[in-house]
Amino acid sequence: MAININNNLLNPAGARSSESRDRQGDAIGTDSKEGQNSVAKPVTARTDSVNLSSEGKNLRQIEDKLSSQPEIDQDKVARIKKAIAEGSYQVDARKLADNLFAMEAQLNKL
């Protein structure tokens, strides 16, 4: 029998506590109540499931569609780069200001 000197298995009164007997039984492969070799009991597998509402399913479909789309319209970027390089790109100051105000209004709602 091995003695574990790191963990004192005796309680202060000198008798083994039920917890220490359980730990000792686990350590040497015996069942603390019966004193016989323990037999592994089969573990039943639990399965978890999730049911999504139709709204959740629709959101998932939209998310899948959006994730497959490029985040940047490369054709538009190419057209703007070409216009800038040629010197023909015109900024509509009114449209730019309107969009800045609209964005500011959206941020204020948060």
Walk me through the structure.
With 110 residues, the chain is mainly α. It folds into two domains: 1-38, no CATH class; 58-109, no CATH class. It is built from four helices and no strands. The chain has helices at 18-28, 54-68, 74-86, 93-109. The longest helix has 17 residues, at 93-109. It is elongated. The chain starts with 17 loop residues before the first helix and ends with a helix. The mean pLDDT is 76.
Task: Provide keyphrases for this structure.
about 110 residues; 2 domains; 4 helices; elongated; flagellum
Topology readout:
Blueprint: H1 18-28, H2 54-68, H3 74-86, H4 93-109
Radius of gyration: 35 Å
Oligomer class: single chain
Morphology call? elongated
Q: How many discrete structural domains?
A: 2
**Number of DSSP strand runs:** 0
Helix content: 40-55%
Roughly how many Å apart are the termini?
68 Å
Alpha-beta classification? mainly alpha
Q: Roughly what fraction of the amino acids lie in strands?
A: under 5%
Please provide the ordered H/E string of secondary-structure elements. Answer: HHHH
If you average the pLDDT, what whole number results? 76
Describe the largest sheet. Answer: none
Low-confidence stretches: none
How many helix segments?
A: 4
